[in-house]
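Dear support,

We are seeing what looks like truncated structure output for some complexes. This example has three components. We would appreciate it if you could run it in full and send us the complete token output so we can diff it against ours.
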Amino acid sequence: MPPSFYILAALTIAATAAALSLRNLVHCALALSVAFIGLAAVYLQLDAQFVGLAQILVYVGAVSILVVFAILLTRNDEATKPLVSRFSVAGAATALVVLGVLTWAIDKSEFTHRKLPPAPAATVRQIGDALMTHYVLALEVIALLLTAALIGAVIIAMHNEEPKS
Amino acid sequence: MSSLSSYLLLSAFLFALGLAGAITRRNAIIVLIGVELMLNAANLNFIAFWRFGDHPEALTGILFAIFSIGVAAAEAAVGLALIIAIYRQYKTTNLDRIDSMKG
Amino acid sequence: MTDAIDQIFVNLKHWLVGWCPADLQPLASIILSVAMVIGVFAGLFAVVTVIERKGLGRIQNRYGPNRVGPFGFLQFAADGIKTLTKEDIVPRAADRVVHYLAPLALVMPVFAAYAVLPFGRNMTLTELDGGLLFFFAMGASTELAVFMAGWSSRNKYALFGAMRAIAQMISYEIPLILSAITVVMLTGSLSLVKIVAVQGTYAGWLPDWNVFTPWGFAGFVLFMIAAAAESNRSPFDLPEGESEIIAGYYIEYSGFKFALFFLGEYLGMFAISGLAITLFLGGWHAPAVWLTWVPSYVWFMAKLMALILLFIWVRGTLPRLRQDQLMNFAWKFMLPLALINLLTAGLWHFIPPGGVRWFICSALVVGPYLMLGQGLTSPDKATKRVYRFAD
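Here is the complete output from our reference environment:
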């Protein structure tokens, strides 16, 4: 393993933990974007250039901004109330069990002990060809989904109260 | 420790953290952040299996990750719109207090 | 001989790197290239601030700076010393960590975006396969820095400015990317080096630049308008409109941090102009066959200066938009035109070359422009303004 992986992994996990545990919601959103950048760097390290760059464009450029806008549009009372909900113990236990099972499965599996094969070629042209031939139906469905989500989000969040005159 | 398993372990940690955040936090926005992080952990698995798999030239993992990013973007937009709509109704994003469906 | 001058920087770098021990050579090569880019564009920033102030002065019938150095051209040195020696004030209520990190988070992606721009023949820092995607990813990450600056200052004007800036950048990012996609469609590559290479031939006295096609011309105009909005240049400088919200998101910054914001904004403008040159204006290629003896980097810099002067001219000419005009312009005018332009580019690819192709594609560019312009500006649409909150 290259040392850069350990640095990136530590950064990503620390940022994720911060994003989910900080009290100030804007700090959470900023930590979240650091986690996204860390993951994008891991993708780049895995020779998945297109996905890594798309990750930065979509998550850091759009999703983080959406989260920030939602935080500013809603007032939060985090500063005074307890941070966690009433399911906190059960939730933490569930997450720990999931982590344990996943770790056990990864450790036991034969498949996961293989070494890094030589870097495959995944040029943008190949990805584009695959999208336009083999996966064209999925692409259309995604286009439909995004359009529906766009219209749906606008309608849900639209102000339907009449202005007071 | 071999290469693939360390990527999978990173992904498992991210997934567990996202799950813990999504279940335990009270704020709806943080819950959504947790869900996004779980989706990202799944994406990391796709990329790692593509990179270590037997047929990387098929690009399956890459394309699955790209579609997953698209779905996650749509999910974030709709989810945050729902949170804003709920906030207008209840004047809170605290999930413990949005319980009018509770019998 | 012309080749030697053209490649002088490349050869110089190889020669310098050759002096290093073998295992340090990749590192030395990276450091040299990065230092070169930072040096050249920070220097350009210094020169352009003076040119801008003098040019705006001339447009407004005054002299502009003329005290420091010959014709005032050393004004940037005086400005630099002033900002460096000023006190660095952080508001007491500010979120100190975020307030400190915001200028860095703005400048770093802007500098990173230069990594994929081809400045001349063999003069690209990294020839990424997805170079255009990298550029847009870096451009999109600056939005978060703007928000960090506005939010951490704990100042309502800063927050207003940040919200305006983010809304504007997100809205104009869509026409920006859509107009760039036409070039990607016709070139079949996201690599900026390849996009430049495709534009390197000459048809008669005209070079094969993308701007000399109907879709390319429309794309270039849309791209430049969106670029002005992305880099918060006038007439889209609402985020820092000094008469409304003083200085927008960097109101609470002083000293060197303010200089970093200033630097980031100008470098963003240079980078996006460089991308416009790469996509539409033939990159570093000469505009005519008999001018190919001039080195490639000279052409890049000349085109860059031309676009910068265009930005300065526009800034001195047009008044600032209102917020609703800004949004209407992006969503009702630029976005439909950019979408139709995608269709035009597709038709251009499939119709065989000739007059018919030119006629159809030009009609598809000019027709919607006229119709949309008529529809948005016709006087019968202008009704009495309804004030929602001001009554």
